[in-house]
Amino acid sequence: MALQIIGVILFVLGLILYRVRRRSEYKLISYTIAREAKIADLKTEFEEVSQGGIGKGHYKQLIALHGTIDSPKPLISELSKTPCVKYRMVIDRTWEEEYEERNERGQIEKKSRQGTTPVAQNEQQQPFYIRDETDSIRVSPEGAKIELQKVLDRFEPEPSATTISIGNFKLQVSGTPAGNRRYLGYHYQEWIFPIGQRVYIHGEVSDSGGELTFQKPSETSTKEPYIITLKSKSELINSTSKSIKILHYFTCFSFAIGAILLLLGLLK
Fold first, then answer.
1. How many angstroms separate the CA atoms of 242 and 239, rounded?
2. Residue 77 and residue 59: Cα distance in Å, rounded?
């Protein structure tokens, strides 16, 4: 019976991996055949369409392009105080405590363990612009898969003061741990999407919001990926291809081992 249960679990896992692989294959096709354009050409095409009788508010095109992140009023990340258009920060408090556990001989042993407790986390983003050698275009980050860059990963011992301060962040914290627990310090981490970096963007260009903007593909194109990455198009295609190969091997493995275990379970 146990073999059959494991076999069914592996079959279900295989089905999940198959669906993930199919989605990755669709993304790979989209990246490969995506129409690449210059921003000035898009704006010229938009003007021609809007003046040709269709009017504004109806322009939609799936587009890919390379450009540089730009923003007239960038965000300033909380911990590293870096200009950016998106950031995510996490602060964890590290602790250590002693506890008792009964061993296999029935004796009580004293042990110690470490863990972390979340203290603060925050994520902010705002619309920005992508600029190429011809022009710039507005980008709405809502719904996009954005590859962030880690700019801070630091541990600091527990301070004597009850206030922690780093960058623009300040927080008053309790200095009295519970039970046998003692505080060791704070782990600060921050990720950003920085100004001035060259990126690749794949999404829908539309004027539905009143201004020509890159945005998440509309309901009629829900399978289309919306991605803003620091990788180039060729790097993105290569990494997606490798992921598909790995998923293929694991899918075949799950189905094959699942079938063998089910068969053995039935024969027992």
1. 5
2. 34
